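Thread: quick sanity check before group meeting

JM: Hey all, I'm pulling together slides for Thursday and realized we never actually wrote out the predicted structure for the chain we discussed last week. Dropping the sequence here so it's in one place. If anyone has concerns about the input, flag it before I start.
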Amino acid sequence: MALDHTEQLGQTREAIAEDKSTIIKPGSVAVIGPGAPGLDEIFLRRARGAQVGVVAVRAQGQPSPVVQQRTVCYQLASRPNAPDGCTLVRVRGIFTEYGEVVLLSPAYQAANVATAIAAVEIYLGCALDANALRTTLEAMVFPGRFELLRGHPPLVIDGAHNPQAAVALAEAIEDAWPGEHTRPALLLGILADKDARGIVEVLAPLASSIAVTRTTSPRAMDVEELATIVEQVTGRRPPVFADVDSALDELSTASEAGLVVTGSITTAGEARRWARERFGTV
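JM (edit): ok, ran it. Output follows.
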């Protein structure tokens, strides 16, 4: 759970968890995913107060706040080793074992898929059709989340807009570009109310180079201010582009290793529009 939207949700992870826990209502079942370590008791307390059942989702071998029979477990069998690579994950649901499923996405989506399986199982009250599940997951795309817009050279967009999301993106980059000397270039456009330094500090070690831009959002960070942050973190002044389109016109094929466009959902969205206009298939 990230420290984000703190003006509305609170200044600490605990405060944010308290706010989010109010979605647990009488007559429902609470599904506690693995993305909020140390905060389980907040959700459990809310569930007890609402007198509802709880299902937890955990990686294989990790402790669960509920009994095993109420815990959905997942285990990574294989991680991607290229931008278009697959994640293989084994999932044991409440009602059945689903075996190995294929995701055309980074390994961090394994937890999200296991949580989705848990929610649907509880909603239906039975096991899912394993063949239908595999077919659906193999065809599933995650727009704006490590989305591959072009294969050669790779062009990837990701809506990571805080340091926690940047950590997940960094992990995905490390998997997809396993060679330390073949890392992708990075194009960053970040909103003014986000932790730009935190994002840059996480992603800079995984990028062969960094350029900065500004989206059309009125909340976008001034591009020169962002360039200064990148320079302070990396020791190098990055190329500056006034908008996403001009940046991609110059950078999209500049590196054989590829380009990752990130920093905000609007940056990813504008890059996706650019690709649709150029390629016509996104």
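AS: nice. Residues 5-10 have pLDDT under 50 and may be disordered. Residues 109-124 form the longest helix (16 residues).
JM: adding both to the slides.
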